[in-house]
Design brief:
The chain has a single domain, classed as TIM Barrel. Strands 1-2-3-4 form a 4-stranded parallel sheet. Strands 5-6-9-10 form a 4-stranded parallel sheet. A two-stranded antiparallel ribbon has the order 7-8. By secondary structure, the chain is of the alpha/beta class. It is 47% helix and 14% strand. It starts with 18 loop residues before the first strand and ends with a helix. It holds the Pfam family A_deaminase. One of its GO terms (molecular function) is adenosine deaminase activity. Belongs to the metallo-dependent hydrolases superfamily. Adenosine and AMP deaminases family.
Amino acid sequence: MHRTPAGVAHDDPILQLPKVSLHDHLDGGLRPETMIELAEAVGHELPATDPEALAQWFAESANSGDLVRYLETFAHTTAVMQTREGLIRVAKEWVLDQVADGVFYAEARWAPEQHLAGGLDLDDVVDAVQEGLDAGVAEASADGRFIRVGQIITAMRQADNSMAIAELAIRHREKGADSGVVGFDIAGPEKGFPPSAHLSAFNALHQAYVPVTIHAGEAAGKESIHEAVTVCHTQRIGHGARIVEDMDIVDGEGQLGSLAAWVLDQQIPLELCPSSNLQTDIGGTIASHPITGLKDLGFAVTINPDNRLMSGTSVTREMRLLVDEAGWTQTDLEWATVNAITAAFLPLDVRERMLDEILIPGFARVTV
């Protein structure tokens, strides 16, 4: 179970820090060796059949600088997640890889509508993923490690199916905590597919008290964030890095636009994913990525891997890059992690207990 995350030294003290992963796609976190085995079982042809070569193919494809091409890599991951057995295995390993990364709370976001080719229906695939997540949590517990996970049910913004997916999320959310569903999201290509096109779904979710996060401000600009916040009333923003387009700040001095000021003043959490953003042409370098400037201005930034396979990353690696290349301190890492657990789609008492019993003591025990 103890796999050192990609790109991380096995003795890096950051591995020992307690972490929260809010923006972490299930179908973007498969192990290459698992993909190869599952692909052989279902007759799917992969670009490579050696684990190292396959990982390298994903990295090269994801480094195109184009979100649409980046998203095309998911054709291979979703292809091996069309059976109950495949979904269970992927979900279980996803949890175990979180544990190896030091994550104590994670939300697995994924789009059930992309996993029906094997004859399963929407409820079947949600149940299969939950079985896998539960198995991963149980194995971690047997090994003396604690982790809690939830599902974020995601609709694809380029499809005309968001209401059905919203109803799916509501249906499973109403089963209670055992269903594992904690929230809803829309993902996919932003340009040409605004959040407002799915307003009926968001209205139904709000009326059912289902928390919402929306991919915005990644490929599209501040108008995407504006719609997510003011039209669809999202609780969190997936990515949101392009909020900087609504501010004129130089060396900490300048002015925020009305949207940026609102996001700051309301402390709407930003699920930032530095390495992934560099792959889709945001930021240029880790040092120049908007996350550091946003942190310094007081925005509720959180640190996330987005897609562990495509970016060859983890929360630990993202933190290490921020420390080494952007001058972050352990205090900065702790502050962003507090933001994340505060923003988690969990009951307040659970968040407060995790903060007091896991996060704060855990950071106190480690020196980065």
